[in-house]
Amino acid sequence: MSEATALDPEDLKIITLARSARARVTAAEGAAVRDETGRTYAAAAVALPSLQLSALRLAVAMAVSSGATSLEAAAVVSEADQPDPADMAMLRDLGQGITVFHVAPDGALRATFPI
Question: How does the average pLDDT of the chain come out, rounded?
């Protein structure tokens, strides 16, 4: 994770949480978010016949249902070339100033997006 080594320890933490959530259930995608109080929420993608949720949507839902009103940062781990544009748009519902880290499964930081 050469680029990520320059990241803040709290940012590295959500990247690690997102990677762990993905690996724990061998999901296509993992995500983690940090809210305005520093609490973190991690999730893996859900792929059921009657329910499809991206990991980021689930992590955000967990944060909001726990009382978060804004987010500071998010990490998405997947093999995709870029995060889902609909997921990125969803983050805007929680304000501005959110940093999104897009990470490969091996931990390499692919890109950082400001919201």
Answer: 94
